[in-house]
Design brief:
The protein has 159 residues and is an alpha+beta fold. It is 26% helix and 23% strand. It has helices at residues 37-53, 59-75, 122-129, and strands at 27-32, 79-86, 90-97, 132-137, 142-149. α1 (37-53) runs antiparallel to α2 and α2 (59-75) packs antiparallel against α3. It is elongated, with a radius of gyration of 21 Å. The protein starts with 26 loop residues before the first strand and ends in a 10-residue tail after the last strand.
């Protein structure tokens, strides 16, 4: 008597980028609006990144954070918050302050700041290094958010 054997294989494919493991924790910290908060925020972010990812943050990511934090410390009335999270292939950094916000629009990304000016380089540098940058203000709070792709050399191991 002839017999046919049949096997059925069922494969569940997770959504793109989902490793099936819990995501990296979100970094959140609050700081007073003072210049001393800038190096403190930078150190705490670097420690968080290193602890969570298992390797140090690259210099450009740290510079992005430092520039956004320096702007917030200068513009905030009382304080600012820093949030960061690692996504599948990028890091998102957000800095929210209670300052009045930007007046006008950001200068064009292809126009370098005046080399003689005392200020005006921070957001220019962030725009060069980040893949996305958005700034929104309602007169009471300003939110700067950027995203930077993590190259293979900077990408955290899959969790």
């Amino acid at each position: 008597v002839p017999r046919d054997d049949m096997a059925l294989l069922v494969l569940r494919v997770p959504p793109a980028g989902a490793s099936g493991l819990p995501p990296y924790p979100v970094y959140t910290a609050e700081y007073p609006a003072e210049v001393e908060s800038v190096p403190r925020a930078r150190r705490e972010f670097v420690t968080w990144f290193t602890d969570e990812v298992g390797q140090p943050a690259d210099a450009e990511t740290v510079l992005i954070l430092a520039e956004l934090v320096a702007n917030a410390a200068r513009a905030a009335r009382t304080g600012f918050e820093v949030h960061a999270r690692i996504l599948d292939d990028s890091i998102e950094i957000e800095v929210v302050d209670d300052g009045p916000g930007l007046t006008g629009e950001l200068p064009p990304a292809d126009v370098a700041p005046d080399p003689e000016a005392e200020q005006g380089r921070g957001l220019y540098l962030v725009r060069l290094m980040a893949d996305e940058l958005s700034i929104a203000s309602d007169g009471r709070r300003t939110r700067a958010r950027c995203r930077r792709r993590l190259t293979a050399a900077r990408r955290p191991p899959v969790r």
